Amino acid sequence: MKKTVIMIICVITIIITIAACTDHERTSPFDPNTGKVDTLTTFEVSFGNFSSIGLTWNSDYLNEEGYTFNIDRKIGNDPDWQENYMVLNQKINSCIDSMPRAGITNYYRIRVCYDQNTSDYLLDSVSVAPLPNPFYLQSYVESASATKLTWSDTVGGEKGFKIDKKTGDLGEWIINYGSVGENTTKWTDTQPTTAGSIHYYRVRAFTYADSSDYSNVSRAENVAGVSILFSAGSFIMGTSVGSLDSLPVNVTLTKDFYLGKTEVTQKEWLDVMGFLIPDGASNDSLGDYYPIMGISMYYAIKYCNFRSMSESLTPCYTIDGSTDPANWGTVPTSSNASWNAATCNFLVNGYRLPTAAEWEYAGSFDDERLYPWGNEAPTDLLCVGHDRYYAYTVGTRSPAGNSKNGLCDMAGNVAEIVWGSFDDLGTSCTDPFETGAYAAIANLRGGSFLSELYEFLCTFEKSMSPWNSQYFDGFRVARTKTE
Description:
With about 475 residues, the chain is an alpha+beta fold. The protein folds into three domains: about 35-130, Immunoglobulin-like (Sandwich); about 135-220, Immunoglobulin-like; about 225-480, Alpha-Beta Complex (paralog of FGE (formylglycine-generating enzyme)). It has helices at about 1-25, 265-275, 295-310, 335-340, 355-365; strands at about 30, 35, 45-50, 50-55, 65-75, 80-90, 95, 105-115, 115-120, 120-130, 135-145, 145-150, 160-165, 175-180, 185-190, 200-205, 220, 225-230, 235, 250-255, 255-260, 315-320, 345, 350, 415-420, 430, 440-445, 460-465, 475, 480. The chain is elongated and about 115 Å long.
């Protein structure tokens, strides 16, 4: 009996051993008798994004030892393969190529290697589209030491963006002047700029292996503090279309005058006044080169005289016989007879508000254009306005939205306070609004970031109380040329 049991155990052991050996011979990819390695049965290549091509193959080798998967790569029509582009151990059945080439077909082939023995290749490929370029690049000077860039990118997969810069129209491009990482679509140039300086920027996306084409070129001009000279002349003020108080008037201006290229900025206001009034800025529109906002007409004429005095110019405005705002008292927040009777001297060289006639002359100039930039309907590329909820830094739509003479933001951004209105001008006049008191009613030109499109017309105006301030109102300054 004992011998029988021992024999049975031996038979079972032999059967298990044979079975084990048979299983190994069935699953092992290497045949030691022939030296051949089995070819993989599946190999697939798939596009993930511009920094990721996925490779997968069958997993029969996961439990085997000593094998490697050797992957070669070839790009487009290049006849040469990059042999052993990736070499992976037997416990892996997928990988990522993080350096695919864009705009061309990427070919891959895989083989199994064991010692000096290899299988046949399996081949697959994927065509990759060109790396899309960034678009809608915008740049604007936020302060003397901060020029901000923003752009759009809807694809993803890039490793970042590179920024080139050029100074002036004749400058050379500085390649890779700046860069940002992936999924970032804004950048700030902290190189200081001076008034009147112009810089150009362009952006491209990059991966480990490729770069896209460039975005549009964006122009950033430091326009703060710059004035533009207008010569005396004649024009048709108003229009026969629309508001009844803007009927056409033949107007002659006999004096040359300067007009600020931009609306008065918060820095220009702070340098003179030393404080921001409650509505002078908002959290979304706070900074040196944002326009001052929420200014009443009373406050505007006080600023003009203080600024004139700070620059040793002769103040224009007189209240109660004095041109020194220190003698005027606190700026009224309701109607005030003395402030309503303020007069303006147009024969001196100090700062003042432009008259309604000067503003419209500068906006429509010599061709009676509908809008400061021409007759094209307003768009977001031409002006900051209509359904926006905050102002932008001055000059962000320059030069596309500029007037014929280069004035920025004449339409949109903040509505601008002017001196005088269309009332009682008749059919022709010379130098309107230069005599008499016009501070009892504040008139607004150009519309704001909240305005309807028709308010951007050069001929449109609306009025408000001179003591009232609205958070979307501002102003630009004028000066009579006296020399």
